[in-house]
Here is the input.
Amino acid sequence: MIRTGKELAETVKKIATSYKTLYVMGCFGAPLKAEHKERYCKNCSYNKQPVRTAMIKAASADTFGFDCVCLIKGVLWGWNGDKNTVYGGAKYEDKDSGVPDIDCNDMMDRCSDISTDFSKIEVGEAVGMQGHIGIYIGDGLAVECTPLWKNCVQITAVQNIGAKAGYNSRKWTRHGKLPYVTYDKVSASSSDGKTTCTIGRANAPVNVRAEASINGKIITKLPKGTEVKMTGKTVDNGGYTWAEVIYNRKSCWCDKQWINS
Here is the structure.
């Protein structure tokens, strides 16, 4: 189970350097054996294009199919390069991971500390642009799965930081911390003059124990039993501990005493 941004970065880097891969839209790590190829040649209009279909059919049985966001989902769902399983070891929407089957734009929107300033980006953060996503692996490099250049999972330079000899370069529009893993550095940011610190791993969905106030980007009342997801961040609010949660796909703050954590 991938639990940290560093582990995520190491895993996608290993996929880029140690496995045969091919860009296959909607595929999160399936080995392209004959019994799987027909499914992916028909699963979406992109793969139905004659050129793409020909690529899928020509792939060797030890090639794994991914697209940009399915690379991340597949790894977080447990992909381990197993050629003898349907999805390379991944379990679709693995409940322990807390990762839903969402597209790349939605995954970026769910990140915390989203920024267009790449000077303090951390290893394992998501890098994104409209319709595309990757993972920052350090040293000015990212791993992305794209039909461009090598047509597979590949390491590219983050142009926002600077070009690097020997690597194709992409300029991303933003980066952020995924809510499904933790990050090595303690992240401190200001929220209404208070310090927010990253603690622990983002938990699986939890429930509000009693009617609770939610403040932040949204203000509402949550009845007992409302399901939210903790991000792992807390803040001291006048002697009370508030926890950051995701509710209705938005980041907000809830008095921690009212959460079953």
About this structure: The two ends are 20 Å apart (CA to CA). The longest strand covers residues 227-237. Residues 75 and 90 are 7 Å apart (CA to CA).
